[in-house]
Design goal:
- The chain has 14 helices and no strands.
- It is mainly alpha-helical.
- Helix 5 runs antiparallel to helix 6 and helix 7 (96-105) packs parallel to helix 9.
- The longest helix is centred in the C-terminal third of the chain and has 17 residues, at 164-180.
- The chain is globular.
- The N and C termini lie far apart (62 Å).
Length: 231
């Protein structure tokens, strides 16, 4: 049974309807297989001949692309090979769900953050919506700390793409930086003049929605939110 047959045997039509509504920019057909099942399939394929799998697996459906991304993240291979496969996979990302799921699977990044950062910088300069989102979600997942926050803030300020999914990724990332690197992020938000207004307001809103932000900090953020709106 090939991967497409396996996926079709695991389809859940109710989930398919639900997932389709969550990903309005979906360009590939969706079968309707839940993420934990896709991850399990990827682990199974990663233990076999993952090279053959990646060469033979088609890009016909959302799920097939997702499984490819998960295999790249979990198969045992050299760092050089993994980076090569990541670069080949990036053009296949055409929606937020594939982007974010792929980023979450690249846990090896913790061992080679400087090398990954260089790839992310290339993505930020690409002008392509989902390559830029990839870089921003990677910043959120693996770089929300004292060492990298200043570099990340510079990219949020000079974001060169107006796409909704880029701006939303930036706002989401900034809110998480606030949780993990509070003082520097607060200073950034108080002093930035370059961050576009939509992303700025959405960042503050996401901070207000977080359960990990104190009531005292939320009061400050509310004041910042209303002050910027009235200025």
């Amino acid at each position: 049974m090939d991967i497409k047959e396996k996926l079709n045997s695991l389809r859940d039509d109710n989930y398919r309807e639900f997932q389709s509504k969550l990903i309005p920019d979906l360009k590939k057909p969706i079968i309707g297989v839940r993420l934990p099942v896709l991850r399990k399939l990827a682990k199974e394929e990663a233990k076999k001949d993952y090279k053959e799998f990646l060469n033979q697996c088609s890009d016909d459906t959302y799920e097939e692309i997702m499984v490819q991304g998960f295999v790249i993240g979990c198969a045992s291979m050299s760092e050089d090979e993994r980076f090569l496969l990541i670069e080949r996979f990036l053009p296949k990302i055409d929606n937020w769900a594939v982007c974010d799921g792929f980023c979450g699977s690249l846990k090896f990044t913790k061992k080679c953050r400087e090398r990954m950062w260089k790839l992310m910088e290339e993505c930020m300069e690409s002008g392509e919506e989902y390559k830029i989102r990839f870089a921003m979600v990677m910043m959120l997942d693996y770089y929300a700390d004292e060492e990298y926050c200043s570099k990340a803030f510079q990219y949020f300020d000079r974001n060169l793409h107006e796409g909704y999914y880029v701006k939303m990724a930036a706002a989401w990332a900034i809110s998480q930086y606030f949780v993990k690197v509070r003082e520097k992020t607060m200073a950034y938000l108080k002093n930035t003049a370059a961050l576009d207004e939509w992303t700025y307001q959405k960042s503050l809103q996401k901070i207000l929605e977080s359960y990990r932000v104190s009531l005292e900090d939320k009061a400050v953020i509310r004041e910042m939110k209303s002050k910027r709106k009235s200025s």
